[in-house]
Amino acid sequence: MEQISTYLAPRQLDEALRAMADGDATVLCGGTDLAPQTESGARQYQATLLNIRRIEGLGGIEATSGEVRIGATTTVSEIRRSAALADVAPVLVEAAERFASDQIRNAASLGGNLCNASPAGDMAPPLLVLDASVELACWRDGAVQTRRVPLERFFVGPGKTARRPEELLTAVVFDRPAAGFVGRFRKSGPRPALEISTVSTALGARIADGRLHDVRVAMGSVAPTPLRARHVEAALEGNPLDAAAIAAAVAATTEDVKPIDDVRASAWYRSHLARVFVEEVLNDVRRD
Amino acid sequence: MSVETEIRFRLNGREVALKVPATMKTLAMLRDQLGLTGTKYACGEGECGACTIEVDGRTVNSCLMYAVDCDGREVVTIEGLRTPQGLHPVQQAFVDHGAVQCGFCMPGMIMQARNLLEENPNLTREEAQRGLEGNLCRCTGYAKVLDAVEAVAAKESSHE
Amino acid sequence: MSKTASNSPIGKKTLIGQRVRKPDAPDKATGKTRYINDMVLPQMLIGKVLFAGRPHARIVRIDTAAAEKLPGVHAVMTGKDAAGLKFGFVRDNVALKDKVRCEHDEVAAVAAESEEIALRALELIAVEYEDLPGVFTPEAGAAEGAPLIHDEFAGNRSLHFEFKHGDLEAAEATSDLVVDNVFRPHHVTHCCMGTSCAIADFDHNGKLTIWTQTQYPYNYKMDLAPALGIGPGDIRVIQPPVGGAFGSKLDVYPYEPIAALLAKRTGRPVKVIYSREEEFRASPTRQAAIIHMRTGCTRDGTLTFRTADVLLDNGAYTSWGPTIPVIMMRTTSGHYRVPVVDFKAQAIYTNNPYAGSFRGYGNVQTTWATAQQMDMLADMVDLDPLEFHLKNAQRSGEITPQKSFLRECALVECLEAAANASDYSRKRKAYAAQRDEPGRYKKGIGLASSIHNAGGAKIHKSDGIGTILKVDDYARVTVITGASEIGQGIDAVITLIVAEELGVPLEHVTIVNNDSDIAPWDVGVHASRTTFIAGNGTRRAARKAKAQILDAAAKFLEEPAEALDLRDGSVVRERDGAPLIKLDRLLRQMHFQTEPEVVMVTDYYEPKSEPEGARHVSDHSAAYSHAVHVAEITVDTLTGEIRVDKVTVAQDVGRVINRMGLEGQVEGGIAIGLGYALSENMQLDKGRLRNACFRDYKLITAPEMPPIEMHFIESNCAEGPYGAKGVSELPTIVIAPAIANALYNATGVRIFDPPMTPEKVARAIHDRRTQATPGKTAVLEGMTV
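^ inputs. structure came back:
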């Protein structure tokens, strides 16, 4: 049985980071992952339960400058309702639309979702195609230290990230997409949400002179971590978005995805859906 | 075992203060500490919505929310909806439209439906279907729940 | 003569067919209702069960010492405490096990002062097992040399059923076309929103009170008694409000005698309650089956024979599941006019979880097969399926090979209503023509029907119900009924009938039920019987009361009783509605006269049906009815997702009593059937359930429900209350094959093993497209996902 000896709900970041400095704090925000995982015994509490939800400056969405910054305690609901994000990164809003249920969206934090590092995590693929990074903070040498890790290097395995035990994920940042950027997100159904995705796919690219540039394709549930589909990207980079490019991209999908059989789907179906979704999002962009 | 913390919050319009263990969830606090059994346990994992309450104007699954996090906040449960004068309009609509069968999911369903309507008084049936996607019901097939929600929304628009 | 408050005439009004609110709805909508799950009794302890977690094993040793020493623990019990206390249909079960036969076998149980302490105590119980090889399919269980699950059941053979009618060889010879398929209806579970819960308490005389979710409170005593070694008469059964049942509570399940054993041991009330995970693992399932069915017809589309050879996965113990052949054979012999029938079913013990009753009870599984074969044969004789169905549909007065007497049969009306309303024939043709055209999304329309009991089912010695009714000095009526309210709305029906007969407001009727010490006998909520049986019982009791009242009124008013009626709280002159005396005033006059007369009546209603009998040839229900569903779908041929766009229902309800409640039963039944058809599946891997949570066991959610158009056909059943028939199972029974037939119409693909998940559909379509011969039907069998 876990022994939590200390509960903290600080309002200042440095106080939270000092509490985490010894690496024996369990971070709590919405509780949507922590609660079921500790109830089932899959995860154990540390000695300190640290509620970060009240920390000033840790929430909020800033999209005014060249960089978009989403605070770690921003809820998926806030992302979904954000007019600013609907304007600069609708692909992220689309993923929020398909996330769990209203009740979960209202509690689930972006930081918690990314730190949970589920291979099926729906917020990861759109952030990957936006070239997002996570900001990690810790208390060292008497001060708050921060560093940034590109999201594609943040996930290291199922449920495992590059975050050190004394670090707190404080924000997700990405450059405001350039002119001509198109993004798409597609997740398996048949439910519109409330579904651990069988496959999810995100596309981000800049269209110029009828060609695709800076192509990013990311997928969930087809590998141990959310995945950048490099072969698919290579098949599209610099090419016009025509039938041949789409066919090549679809074919390249099988080289990128490494799905497994599990209780939700077979490897065959995941591969199949991944190809269907790649074709679908590309055709969708092509139509527009 | 975990450390106990004193929390103070507003519950159904009244100030409440009590001590809760750090690991306790709001659902258990409501049902076991405060005697408010209207909010139900049906899965404990945030998958069924039977435990839906409203916190600071937004609905959440109380089975996932840590009780300590209620501190300083505004909490509304199903028991907080009716007045001495009668049922809340959403509750009355559920009764009038036959939306209640075994009723076990209804507190959570009504909390969610009420919140959707407060957010958007002109909620369409389709929007209500999406909005209720996190509330499972095994008895009704949702049809009369949606009828009730539509009826409340129609009443709203007829007042405009 | 007495004065009346008003002189204006009161016209005859009826509540039959109106929309009546459920009396308990306001308390449920405000969170006031205390469900059994919410109950706390003084001094109550919490009971938790240690489940085996493995499918087949010898229990070598159990060490409970550490658990017993834990502060707050009041009792730890194991198999030795239940030794010899066998219960169950064939007495193959005990509350705490001597041997592990399935994953959820109850190996030990703890009563403690809190759930937290009880769970910690379970962790301290040390069990040493010797794992045994398991059997996980009925074929494996029946094989030569298979591991024996119960010593008393050689060859793992459980129940066996048979029915034959007519000369099969001759019928085969006259058949021009035969379809021959194997269907594998799968394991699903009830997913009641209120998890399993029982509270037990003994009094100083050794009498047990058990608060339970049972839906058959009286025979339940007989079934529970042997598990405890007490007499059925020493058991009081109280049924608090429950969060659903759907058939899952038609038998005794071990957690109930466990609660009682712990209560006996500790001398305190004990509440056993399941978590959702425990609910998934340890609740009874729907009976899974392997149905090898053959149906034949002549070239002109006349059915010639139907055979079914059924193998049932009995699971570890025998509950209601393996008895479903009793109903399966009725569908096999009675779904359309079938002159020759050959049915056999064998249940085989396995180390899988075992099945109970579930809404539809064997007819879900059988209609999945018969309705698809009807569709296939129609195609083969090149007839519109509607024509094929009409050609073989029974009419009123026909009798099936098992002697089901279809007194009022509205199958033809249902077929025509559903097909016309949905424009079935034209759409079916149009969609079939589109099938192989290019295009990702394909529309399909499918028709299916079935027949089911609608007037009870005399599988017990009585199919009746007792009713006690009293009217007090204020004209308030109390109905003490044997009928159990489990959420299905019998409270609204009873209230409606009393108000109708006695002319009192709905709000002046109180129902007392759900306590076996108070209410008279009823066999229980099953076989779609409650509106029919309890409706008749209530009506009879109310009419007895009315007769007594009008006889008394006749004396006081010096008018013949036949000239009087009860309307709107008054005794009126039947002819013109003139109010003569207020009912409550009359009742007080009756009560306080020299020879007091109060209104207290009793009734026992036994439907005029025949016992099932060992040969299964009997008119075992007082009525039968039919439903037809037309399902319209859109199939995404790439992802395999099926979206149900609309369901058109035509159901013979006899007569609509409470329209709102009736609609709710159809809508809710369809939702359960849709889950069965599309998404629900217990994924068992060598006896272990892999998806014991709502995240991975997919119920139908609000956005997935289609609009449902309902046509209620009123065949006016002479024996039914106001002509009504039972209704609640057919909606679950018919929808799944309607969707399967629609899938075929849209894509040329048939799936015989439900559920029709997106993956299964995608694969079947993919296989059909990549085959050498386009246009051939691809059939997907044997998939477990």
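The domain at 61-175 of chain A is CATH 3.30.465.10 (Uridine Diphospho-n-acetylenolpyruvylglucosamine Reductase; domain 3). Chain A has a mean pLDDT of 95.
thumbs up if we can close this ticket
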